[in-house]
Write a structure and sequence with these properties.
315 residues; alpha/beta; 5-stranded parallel beta sheet; 9 helices; 14 strands; 31% helix
């Protein structure tokens, strides 16, 4: 049923600044809720306003601490369901546990599917996520799923930074489709770095497919975790004669030695989005700049609430 009332937007403790930026875009207040803990660490949630018959949007990235943020989201969804909310939309800017999206070895889990089952069971009626690690994760859900991309935000920044389109580079073969989408929209050349991964969070650069000599190059990826892949890729580009290297990554996980590697790398600037809040060391790194996806997510929330099409946001 069409609703004239504004959507109710709530958030846990994962990324409150992003939720506040979304409400500012929508010119709506952030819903009142208390998300804390009992003395033994169990999560306690109390919703501070009436949600009966209302569209409810819960903004919560499942970033570090992953397990706590995921449980906060699930418990908030359960609280909204028991309070008779009409529609409960989980807005997950960063969908954690997505890297285990298939069985690559015997006796391994598919955590992306497990999380999808937990979200559905808790009472979510719809999910909105940004730049999934693997697009097929949408198929794990039996409820509506809107997969958005940060490409419009990133492309706007690229166009402001370069007078001529740079060479778009995928740091591995798996990201070729993503890099091709950017190069198509910029009408620029494409390059791919062939690598072999020797273990979790470890990789070895092999060779570069494409022409990068004397070119401005831009590495694009969905996330940057320990920064091993992207910094080795940047070094490989410089070794092959690239004029300069910039990088864009949607989700700044930035764990372990990531900041040290970025600072020591030839990457001139690393642009990330605010799907995950930067930790202190990352905020102090001069090479890192944050682009906001709040208007993109805010517009998606507005259109879902008003039952308008969100197709134009699927860039």
């Amino acid at each position: 049923m069409y609703q004239t009332e504004a959507p109710l937007i709530f958030t846990g403790n994962a990324n409150r600044p992003l939720a506040e930026a979304i409400t500012e875009y929508l010119n709506a207040p952030l819903g009142k809720s208390e998300v804390g803990s009992f003395s033994d660490g169990e999560i306690m949630v109390e919703i501070g306003e009436n949600v009966r018959g209302r569209d409810v949007f819960i903004v919560q990235s499942t970033c570090q601490p992953v397990n706590r943020n995921l449980m906060e989201l699930l418990i908030m969804i359960d609280a909204m369901r028991r309070a008779s909310a009409s529609q409960i939309v989980a807005v997950i800017p960063y969908y954690g546990y997505a890297r285990q999206d298939r069985k690559v070895k015997p006796r391994t889990p598919i955590t992306a599917k497990l999380v999808s089952d937990m979200l559905s069971t808790s009472g979510a009626s719809r999910v909105v996520a940004l730049d999934l690690h693997a697009g097929q994760i949408q198929g794990f859900f039996n409820i509506p799923f809107d997969h958005l991309y940060a490409a419009p935000v990133i492309l706007d920044d690229m166009r402001r930074r370069f007078e001529r389109p740079p060479v778009i580079v995928s740091p591995d073969a798996g990201g070729t489709e993503r890099a091709r989408a950017y190069s198509k929209r910029l009408k620029s050349n494409l390059a791919v770095i062939d690598k072999r991964r020797s273990g979790p969070n470890q990789c070895e650069i092999m060779n570069i497919i494409g022409e990068v000599e004397e070119q401005d190059t831009v590495l694009v990826d969905d996330m940057i975790d320990t920064a091993g892949t992207i910094t080795q890729a940047a070094q490989a580009l410089m070794d092959n004669g690239a004029r300069r290297v910039l990088a864009y990554a949607v989700h700044p996980v930035l764990s372990g030695p990531a900041i040290e590697r970025i600072e020591a790398s030839p990457i001139e600037k690393l642009m990330v989005t605010d799907t995950i809040p930067l930790h202190e060391a990352a905020r102090k790194c001069d090479k890192i700049k944050v682009l906001s996806v709040a208007p993109l997510l805010g517009e998606a929330i507005r259109r879902i609430h008003m039952q308008d099409s969100v197709t134009s946001l699927f860039v």
